[in-house]
Amino acid sequence: MFENMSVNLSATERRVSTLTTRRTVKKSWQAAWLIRAIECIDLTTLAGDDTPGKVERLCAKARNPLRADLVTALGLEDYGLTTGAVCVYPMMVATAVKALQGSGVPVASVATGFPAGLTPMPQRLAEITYAVGEGADEIDIVISRRHVLTGNWTALYDEVRAMREACGEAHMKAILATGELKTLSNVYKASMVSMMAGADFVKTSTGMEGVNATLPVSLTMVRAVRDYLDLTGQICGFKPAGGIRTTKDAIAWLILMKEELGNDWLKPDLFRFGASSLLGDIERQIEHNVTGRYASADHHGMA
């Protein structure tokens, strides 16, 4: 029903250019928006040098994402601020689950031949099964880009559906790798097929493509989420990932979600940032709001 759908690139770019010019967030309101951004971060480490110690430090940061003095200054001692999740490779899931026990912070795991998705299907499904068995609450799967580029929507649906079934009770985020899909029309169609196949979230990128999360791509995907809701009554979340590093970036994406989907999509059950360095910059900005001074980046180390 959407094969002939096309997305106007210039109109999309004009729309996103207004996001940070028509709406500004300052002072205490900015601090409040940044606290919400922290709650929506999937604090992520997906590196070849990941170790149990590194993952444990990241989990400690997820439990206490702001320095204690900043938490006190903002009056959040009893708020229970944490990040939205911690995202790791399947081999590190058990370590993260143990480190986050009792915190309420879910563990997400990439799977299915991340990042390229070119592993044979039985192994991709087995990787999901392994991660879920280790205790992952969420699985970030990668789609086969070739199905999108060749217009084989039935194959894409069947693939994502099989992954959805393998996830069981775990939430599934479908990574589209939008930087490799060539057109916004392909991004829209891939989003729709993934949601039809049961994705709980659609996610822009692995963070390892040449081009990762952008506002035009994100607008296209959130419009697909909105259209899918209108057509089916089914709610789907959205996760931009890759290249989102600054407070300014976080505010822009939060404005996008508020204007296009509404306040329900400003909460971690329906919106996440995939980021590893964003939290440090948010901490620096919150410290500036509290003290009037910017700290150097090493005052807010991640792991």
UniProtKB/TrEMBL annotation:
- Alphabetized Pfam families for the sequence: DeoC
GO MF term (any one): deoxyribose-phosphate aldolase activity
What reaction does this catalyse? 2-deoxy-D-ribose 5-phosphate = D-glyceraldehyde 3-phosphate + acetaldehyde
Pathway as given in its UniProt record: Carbohydrate degradation; 2-deoxy-D-ribose 1-phosphate degradation; D-glyceraldehyde 3-phosphate and acetaldehyde from 2-deoxy-alpha-D-ribose 1-phosphate: step 2/2
Q: What is its EC number?
A: 4.1.2.4
Keyword ATP-binding set for record: no
Database matches in Gene3D superfamilies? Aldolase class I
Q: Which InterPro entries match?
A: Aldolase_TIM, DeoC, DeoC/FbaB/LacD_aldolase
Is-annotated flag, keyword Lyase? yes
Keywords associated with the record? Lyase, Schiff base
Similarity field? Belongs to the DeoC/FbaB aldolase family. DeoC type 2 subfamily.
Name this polypeptide is given: Deoxyribose-phosphate aldolase
Q: Which organism is it from?
A: Hoeflea ulvae
